[in-house]
Each structure stands twice: as C-alpha cells, then as structure tokens.
Amino acid sequence: MSTLTITQMAEKYNLKPDTLRYYERIGLIPAVPRQKNGNRYYNEGLQDWIEMIVCLRHSDVPIEKLVDYAQMLSQGEETLSARQHLLEEQLDELLLKQKNLQRSIDRLEHKISLYKSGEIKNDKSYFEEYKISED
C-alpha cells in the first residue's frame, strides 16, 4: 500500500475531500502529514484508520461516538472495556434496526403477493389486506 492524496482517499472510500478534512479537524483521525506544498498524504496507517471509520459509519455509529472511540483508542488498553461496550451498544441498535427492517420487508412482500394473486379488491380496506400475522 502506498501513500495516497486526499483525492485518492476520497475516491477509495467514496467520501468527499471535505469530509476527510472535517474528520481531521474534529480529531476523528490523527493529524495527516503534509508534503512541502501543503498537500495531505495518507500513509498505510491512516488508510487503515479511515477504513475503520468508514466501516463504523456504515454501522450507523454517530460521529460523536466515533470521536469518543478514537480518543479511547489513543488512551490504550485501559479503555478496552469501554470500547467494547460502545461497540456492543451499536450492535444492539443495528440488530433492532435489522428486526424492524425485516418486519417491513415481510409486510411489503405480503402486500406484493396480494397484488400478484389477485386477492386485492377495490372494496377492501387497504389496511385490512395489509395485515399479516405477528411472530
């Protein structure tokens, strides 16, 4: 892995350069070294760091929690349990979202099946035909 410019980093992780600058400004990523001309360059360690951030953002971890997590990382092993707790809380939130999403998917699939089967009638209530059994 070689060093990348801010534009290359933005493209690699589908971010905007302004987002990377913002992450640096709020302390979410360590200070990014600069070339003599002032351009940022991202070494392997920073690329790994940003990949971790992108992964956590895709997991819906809020920026504020990410900043806390980054600060805990810099404090070392004494924060292991706090970091674990933060990630466990996020997992619980994702699992709840997954459950709610699955319920919505089930309802939509049921509704679509009613259209496909011809069971939908003009004289039926939309909500009546939308009901499915709860598990």
Spatial shape:
elongated
* Count of beta strands: 2
Class by alpha and beta content: mainly alpha
Helix percent reads 55-70%
Ends: how far apart? 49 Å
Assembly type: single chain
Largest sheet, in brief, is: 2 strands, antiparallel
Strand content: under 5%
Strand order of the largest sheet: 1-2
> Topology as H/E string?
EHHEHHHH
Mean pLDDT, nearest integer?
88
The low-confidence runs, each spanning 5 or more residues with pLDDT under 50, are none
Q: How many distinct helices?
A: 6
Task: Explain what you see.
By secondary structure, the protein is mostly helical. It contains six helices and two strands. The protein has a two-stranded antiparallel sheet with strand order 1-2. Helix 4 runs antiparallel to helix 5. The model has no long low-confidence stretch (mean pLDDT 88).
What is the structure about, briefly put?
With 135 residues, the protein is an all-alpha fold. 64% of the residues lie in helices and 3% in strands. Helix 4 packs antiparallel against helix 5 (80-117).
Supply the key terms.
6 helices, 2 strands, two-stranded antiparallel ribbon, mainly alpha, 64% helix, 135 residues, elongated
